[in-house]
Amino acid sequence: MSGPRDGTPRVITAALEPLSKVERVHLRWHRAIPVALLTGALATTCLLTGHESLALPMALGSCFAGLTDLGLGIGRHWRSMSETALSLAVGATIGGLVSGWGDVALISAALMAFACGYVGRRGPIAATNGILALVLYAIFAGSPVDDLTAITTGVSVLIGGFASMLVVVLLSPIKAIGRRHAAAPRTSRHATGARLSWQNPYLQHGIRLALVFVVATALGMHLGWPHEYWIPMTVAWISRPTRTGSAVKAVERTLGTLIGVAICVTLLGYIGLPDGVALVMLVIGSWVFITFLRANYFIAVVGVTVLVISLLTLEGMDTRSTGHWLALSTIVAGALVTFAALAWPGPSPDSPDAVATSRAR
Q1: H-only helix segments in the chain
Q2: Which residues are within 8 A (CB) of 318 and not within 5 positions of it... i.e. 6 or more apart?
Q3: pLDDT band at 349, cuts 50/70/90?
Q4: What backbone torsions phi and psi does residue 122 show, to the nearest 5 degrees?
Q5: Which residue has the higher pLDDT, 4 or 322?
Q6: Quick check: 190 pLDDT over 60?
Q7: Pick from 144, 237, 201: which is nearest to 344 by CA?
Q8: What DSSP line would sit under 56-87, residue for residue?
């Protein structure tokens, strides 16, 4: 029998605890630098050469691929990072291809969300890739393009991801001098995912994620707000197999986004600093995001928010308007995920199922 369900007060308390806690063992100060610089360089190249539409997919491919550089040792980086690059490209391409389908795209959204949620049963890297693929799907499904542009977008994401992987691989021998690499994390299937049954937390997570993602996508399509992809994208980022995990991520994502928006709107909107500063903020945002993602998600969200808004500002969008709409969309997405987490029974935080799923995220 499963353990007692985690009640609402316990969920809310747990959601507030991690905001100031930094897990130093997971900090990646040095490893994030080359990927952040590469992300800025790729975005700058696209903007200077008149290929503004490629700046976002190429920068996201580079930055997100860097998230799975886990210090596995010389010659092994390419495995995890190439898997991530391919996952990102697939998510972006499918999203672009269904972007003009209207309400019919909700069927695709449900299937994509379920697949990306359920794939987490295969291990931590697969879980991360599922989240990232769904994030890219949401972004480009909410940006109507034709089929050729969708393929171009996917290829751009792939180029950015493989460029990041190449930089990390080339720098690995230098970083390896005088130190031993960390052992590779296990990526085998979890015991909880060995059989398909209703008790499988990843099956429940896939279904719940599909339902919430469809609602978020429908809201993005019909509210008429700018950046319609932001609500489903945020849902993809913060949904977790356990109730507490989703509530924690919802709080961290909402507060982190609000702070990131405040920073960008103040510096780039009201003060109106030049584009050169926006480029520096883009690089810093990438570095903060990669450095803190596993150490403190709240701080990482501040970084990725600064990254995205800086990039959108460089592409010519109004910073103040963009920031305000992104903040409002994040609040809506956080409320959706929190409601779903509290309404849908999940494994107890102390149960074997919850322990296994938390390690995957």
Answers
A1: 8-16, 32-48, 52-65, 77-97, 105-118, 124-141, 147-176, 201-222, 230-238, 243-264, 275-292, 297-314, 319-343, 352-359
A2: 269
A3: very low
A4: -85, -10
A5: 322
A6: no
A7: 201
A8: HHHHHHHHHHGGG-----TTTHHHHHHHHHHH
Task: Let me know if 265 is exposed, middle or buried by CB neighbors in 10 A (0-12, 13-18, 19+).
Answer: buried
Which residue type sits at 317? M
331/321 Cα distance (integer angstroms): 16
C-beta of residue 18 within 8 angstroms of C-beta of residue 297:
yes
> What is the pLDDT, as a whole number, of residue 330?
93
Cα separation, 25 vs 23, in Å, equals 6
Residue 103 burial (CB count, 10 A): 10
Q: CA nearest 353: which of 118, 185, 191? A: 191
Q: How far is the CA of 147 from the CAs of 97, 105, 136, 150, in angstroms?
A: 5, 14, 16, 5
Contact in structure between 85 and 77 (CB atoms under 8 Å): no
What is the pTM for the complete model shown?
0.84
Range of lowest pLDDT (29-33, 111-115, 204-208): 29-33
How confident is the model over 78-136, as pLDDT tens digits? Answer: 788 899 999 999 999 999 999 888 888 999 999 999 999 999 888 888 999 999 999 99
The full length of the chain comes to 361
Residues 6+ apart with CB under 8 A from 120: 126, 127, 130, 193, 202, 205, 241, 357, 360, 361
